[in-house]
């Protein structure tokens, strides 16, 4: 029975590795893929006491959107070249884990695949972990793929 799998991507090496791992190890003919990218706009809104620099903000947003477009096009072109049926979701939200879990539910996917940055305990406690959130809150199986340690 064909599956629909969601792969969460960003511009990291970990996401690229998880994507490649999925194609090599999980994908079967007939499956379809949902590529989910959660945009994070960390843009400085101005200089304190001088207000927002609207032109600079617009330029930064355009640059970020161009980067996202290039990134998502790269993943989608790879899937097209391999004749993998795919859908792209460009998502937004302050908490990527929550956004990914909601997208998986809305798309009724069979599973979620994502990479992990392998944060240490302290950094994970302070910053949170997208993969940890998804594992604990998704209503479908989640595969967390870690880049091999090259030591």
TrEMBL record:
Gene3D superfamilies per record? HUPs (3.40.50.620)
Q: Name one Pfam family in it.
A: Usp
Every UspA domain range:
5-146
Q: What is this protein called?
A: Uncharacterized protein LOC106056541
Organism for this UniProt entry: Biomphalaria glabrata
